[in-house]
Amino acid sequence: MDIGQVTGKVAAEKKSGGGDEYLKRHFYQNDLKHMSHIFSCIVLIVAAVLVACIVFYHADRPLQVFSGAFTLFQVRSNLSSSSPKEDRSLENVLFKASMPNKTVILTTLNEAWAAPNSVFDLFLRSFRTGNETIELLNYVVVIAMDEKAYNRCIAIHPHCYHLTSNGTDFSGEKGFMTPDYLKMMWRRIEFLGTVLDLGYNFIFTDTDIMWFRNPFSRFHPDADFQIACDFFRGNPRDLHTNLPNGGFTYVKSNNQTSKFYKFWYESRESYPGLHDQDVLNKIKLDPYIIKIGLRIRFLDTAYFGGFCEPSKDLNKVCTMHANCCVGLSNKVNDLNIILGVWQKYLSNENNTWKLSNSSPWNVPKNCK
């Protein structure tokens, strides 16, 4: 109502003797409307402050808050200017999965091995049926080499990381020593060096390794880099005759191992066409290893066995690897066999196994 309308109303009210009363009512109503507007603004401000407080209170590290399908914001520390997205996500996954002493268990996975009832399912099953191994699953970080493997991982496991491949498709089964196989192996070595640089110790385990016992008591306390063997010759310090297998390693994060992994990765150019394991055999006696003071130990196949040289004593074995075996279907078949042998062992009274000269595993079968 404009001033003219108010004046007219007042004049009319005065004739009837109520002009002053009209003015009071009019301005009282305006005051109410004004106060209502101010109150609404205050409510909105208080609500905004409360929402902000709730957001910051419930946000995890790194800060991520989701409402419905919309990401409100995402804050993570910038670890690397070269590949910030990859490194930010990696630090978060490692932080959530690590033991108090910053140790994690790492494995790699692609689509072929991630399929239901394939190697990945057998790998997880071994932890669940092993002796004091189910708790170790809390520290396992699965490094997915492709999107489908990552999606399968996050559906059944809490700690997954999608490793970018720089344009190479790592999803399908990679034949031994094919170009894509070699790229995948060297991408793995490069990645493990990054984990060391971030300050994390790790056990790296191939997914085709079955875990039957907690292995930490079998590691050498005086070593920086420990590795399983295709064939173990009896002396864990022997660099000349032990034949290492890069599918299982225990590595402490320090200056020596960080320099070693960089040297190992760079050495691929000196030995083109070889995979990481063969290059390791070439460089393990290099003077640079002595120069940096790297302490290497080889793990006994009595505890860390494989199809190449199986552990003969089920009362000691910690892990069994489907090495010396080519073909995904062959691996799956024979890994199922050793899981069956382990289940039979567990069903024996007092979990004992009579040691004999023959292998208790009945493998390799299809892997022959």
TrEMBL record:
Superkingdom, natural source: Eukaryota
Keyword rRNA-binding: no
One Pfam family linked to the record: Nucleotid_trans
A GO MF term: transferase activity
Keyword Transmembrane helix in record: yes
Alphabetical list of InterPro entries matching this protein: At1g28695/At4g15970-like, Nucl-diP-sugar_transferase
Chain ranges passing through the membrane: 37-57
Occurrences of domain Nucleotide-diphospho-sugar transferase (ranges): 136-335
UniProt entry keywords in alphabetical sequence: Membrane, Transferase, Transmembrane, Transmembrane helix
Protein's recorded name: Nucleotide-diphospho-sugar transferase
Source species of the chain: Heracleum sosnowskyi
Lineage start: Eukaryota, Viridiplantae, Streptophyta, Embryophyta, Tracheophyta
